[in-house]
Amino acid sequence: MFFAKSLGLGLSTAVVSTVALTIANNNPLIYFHGRWDSSPGSWWASTGFKLYVQNLQTLSLDLQADSSSPVGLGVSVDYGNFTSVNASPGTNVIPLGSPNACGSVVRINAWGWQNERMLLQDLVLNSDAVLLPYEAADVNFLFIGDSLSAGQYLPMGVDQAWPFLIGEEFKAEATVIAQPCIALADVVSCSNPHGMSVQFFDTEDPNYIDMPDHDYTTPWNFSNDKPTPTHIVIHIGANDVSHGVSASQFVTVYLSFLQRLRTIYPTQPIFVFTPWGWPQPDGTVGYYYVGSYEQIVSQSQDPNVHLVNTTGWVAYGDIFPDNLHPTVAGHQKIAGEFTTWLANWGLRPAAEWATPV
Ligand SMILES: *[C@@H]1O[C@H](CO)[C@@H](O)[C@H](O)[C@H]1NC(C)=O
Ligand SMILES: *[C@@H]1O[C@H](CO)[C@@H](O)[C@H](O)[C@H]1NC(C)=O
Ligand SMILES: *[C@@H]1O[C@H](CO)[C@@H](O)[C@H](O)[C@H]1NC(C)=O
């Protein structure tokens, strides 16, 4: 796709420019976020990059051969709603609508809890586009969880899930380290070889075991967290209880996970969600580890670990009956509840995004 530019000489002919601006995948003006390996390749749903571009007309992504085929990309231009683009190895034209001539923000992420590997070769922009530095928001949420945070069963995965919606609502950065069926305790669960208490500290999400080009893990270098998380939210436990982890074992593993997080994130507020449970057709809700989350918060003896009581947040009408996971509307409801909770706690959405368009 090329940008037709008029010479403005009174001629009706438009000249098609075939010159393009190629941006290498290590250009420091690409604002990478989430967990990337050195390819650079994305791991964990929600990982992606942001661009701030003056005079943006066209954008395509060249993806390396080992990218997922297809990889579902969420694309948002100038803070509009994310739409899905199925990208594949090779050249992918990204639809942009009508971006602002002066400055445009393009946000692209991998939304899938699987098939989430975007291996970036380079970016191709119209020749007269100018890449500018993207300025990150002051608030950067880090969400840690399982399918209920990864957006499993949603058409656009994590991009429609409550953690990501919180980032959007607060005009904040958001990283979601979440994987369906993962436990906190280090047990094998579905195809996850490890629990979150181990996997969180790796660059790779648990899908690494199925990747022919990269079937190993590497320690995540937390200096590469971009930007450093300012607020940490944890919603986990459903797959511990289903794997027979006792309440006392769960409390123990959670407390040591918090201690290890504190070595990386010494002062950030940490929000511990109680489960919203499994709503049933008769109106009851199946809760698990009742009382354990209160115990974790109090035994942590950490004044900046806060209990978020989600009792009653999710009802039968908010879930898919066949898998009991929240629907698109259900996730929006949860995001609304947590937005209210955070406002009462003292955090309100920013008025504007940090990078203006
Ligand atoms: C963006 O999404 C929201 C929530 O789904 C919807 O209410 C709104 O109409 C959408 N905006 C546009 C421009 O499509
Ligand atoms: C981690 O990243 C930082 C900043 O990029 C770098 O200085 C440091 O050497 C890295 N540590 C390791 C163990 O690679
Ligand atoms: C959580 O909220 C429910 C419903 O309001 C209440 O019954 C329960 O006692 C609360 N739990 C805690 C630990 O505050």
Automatic annotation (TrEMBL):
GO MF annotation list: hydrolase activity
Sorted UniProt keywords: Hydrolase
Which InterPro entries is this protein grouped with?
PCW_deacetylase/CE (IPR052762), SGNH_hydro (IPR013830), SGNH_hydro_sf (IPR036514)
| Hydrolase recorded as keyword | yes
| Keyword Hydrolase annotated | yes
Domain SGNH hydrolase-type esterase span(s) in chain numbering: 143-332
Q: Which residues form a coiled coil?
A: none
Name assigned to this protein: SGNH hydrolase
Q: Which organism is it from?
A: Guyanagaster necrorhizus
